[in-house]
Amino acid sequence: MRWTSPQRVEAVPLGRTTVDRLAPWIIVPMAYLATLALAASLAAADAAGAWQAALDGRVTVQLPLAGGDRGAVVDAAVAALEALPGVRAARALTAEEVTRLLEPWLGPEEAAALAELPPPTLIDVTLEAGGAADAAVLEVAVAEAVPGATVAEHASWLTPVRDLAATVRLVAWLVLGLATGAAAATVVAVTSAELTMHRGVVELLHALGATDGYVAGLFQRHALVMGAFGGAVGLALAVATLVALGWATGDAALPEVGLGVPAWLALALVPPAAAGLAMLTARLTVLKVLARWP
């Protein structure tokens, strides 16, 4: 018959030493770093995907600055582009649209100052999916209508953006792995110390018929609470940091990067993940130590 006690939690007086009381607060910074690393990875992936979706299949044609009938030059270029197979639409950007494109990179004041100068003439070209048109074909066609026109393919400068996002994700996952490993090591150290400290009580429980699984259950429930507390506090601090960063960079000349609802739901899993990690680590630690006891 399996032995049970009416006071399972108090069978071993856990959580009463200084080290044990400090353990949850040691997990807090690890959960904090893990949350920020996860947020960075998700934000980088979302940003790269959003930029790819917004610019995929689109190119920009820049016409040379010239006097005379500028409208006729633009109309000739648009007509040449729309006549090409594989081009779905071609539209010249207004001066206000060009200024808005420059604002995130130059700042409102600098962009407004440039607005007083003749703006570059840009044509936004949307290509059909799987169409025959590419940057080289477009450049030849538009050069026949407007000599000196150039074509900028967005995919060419999206490559370093994707590489940067991949690097950010790699570093974030390394930080997440290190934080997870450090948290597990903390639980192992605290659990081993507590088990050694209460060895006499544990041996008495064994003499009364308690199994190793029962003893491990006492420690794993204690570790569960410890991990949940550290994960919750770490998550709260990380969310406050992310909100503060968003507020501080709200007006900065940076591309918009944010977290969507799925990303926030993933961050909300940090406390239960920390609790589960602590519980599993504590149980395995206790079972391993008890297996070595005579």
Description:
The protein is α+β, with helices and mostly antiparallel strands. 69% of the residues lie in helices and 8% in strands. The protein contains 10 helices and 4 strands. It has helices at residues 18-55, 70-82, 95-106, 108-115, 135-145, 154-197, 199-207, 212-248, 261-267, 270-292; strands spanning 58-63, 87-92, 121-127, 150-153. A 4-stranded antiparallel beta sheet has the order 2-3-1-4. Helix 3 (95-106) runs antiparallel to helix 4.
Topology:
Blueprint (H helix, E strand, L loop, with lengths): L17 H38 L2 E6 L6 H13 L4 E6 L2 H12 L1 H8 L5 E7 L7 H11 L4 E4 H44 L1 H9 L4 H37 L12 H7 L2 H23 L2
Helix pairs in contact: 1-6, 1-8, 1-9, 2-5, 3-4, 6-10, 8-10
Summarize the structure.
This protein is α+β, with helices and mostly antiparallel strands. It has helices at residues 18-55, 70-82, 95-106, 108-115, 135-145, 154-197, 199-207, 212-248, 261-267, 270-292; strands at 58-63, 87-92, 121-127, 150-153. Residues 1-9 and 251-256 have low confidence and may be disordered.
Number of strands: 4
What shape does the CA trace take? rod-shaped
Which whole number gives the mean pLDDT? 77
Strands across the major sheet, in which order?
2-3-1-4
Query: Regions with pLDDT < 50 over 5+ consecutive residues?
Result: 1-9, 251-256
Radius of gyration: 31 Å
Strand content: 5-15%
Which bin fits the share of residues in helices?
Answer: 55-70%
- Helices and strands: which structural class? alpha+beta
What does the largest sheet look like? 4 strands, antiparallel
